Automatic annotation (TrEMBL):
Sample GO molecular function, one term: peroxidase activity
Protein name per the record: Osmotically inducible protein OsmC
Organism (species): Glycomyces artemisiae
NCBIfam families in the cross-refs: osmo_induc_OsmC (TIGR03562)
Highest taxon, organism lineage: Bacteria
Length: 141
């Protein structure tokens, strides 16, 4: 069975001088302002499509890594994933850098690295974003 999650952005004005509010329809999380300036310059408390993609990728990767470790017989004490989405005005999204640090009792570094790399390629958000180069830095401990 498929599940659909919804978000909505209401935008007013032009690209440079306008702004919008993104609403998280499915979860009811607080509305978040978004502007071109927050995308191309200093965020000043507002979000951007790239930050929203980074949040989706970091959370998806963490869940997928937890699942991959579980299939191999391990349970992580902690997984911390950060995703950096690079945006170049006029070009678009040019790359995504995933950085993960995990504490996983009993796993060897080589096995952890293999699972982490397979997760980078296999997590659903990575799959959706595979048109963009995705790098991974994985640290155990």
């Amino acid at each position: 069975m498929s599940v659909t999650r919804n978000a909505r952005t209401r935008w007013t004005g032009g690209l440079q001088d306008g702004g919008g509010v993104t609403s998280f329809v499915s979860s009811g999380l607080p509305d978040t302002p978004v502007t071109w300036a927050s995308r191309a310059n200093d965020p000043e408390g507002k979000t951007s499509p790239e930050e929203l993609i980074a949040a989706a990728h970091a959370s998806c990767y963490s869940m997928a890594l937890s699942a991959g470790l579980g299939k191999a017989g391990y349970t992580a004490e902690e997984i911390v994933t950060e995703a950096g989405v690079d945006f170049k005005p006029g070009t678009g999204i040019t790359g995504i850098a995933l950085t993960v640090r995990a504490v996983v009792p009993g796993i060897e570094k080589g096995e952890f690295d293999e699972i982490a790399a397979a997760t980078k390629d296999g997590c659903p958000v990575s799959q959706a974003l595979k048109a963009v180069p995705i790098s991974l830095e994985a640290t155990l401990g």
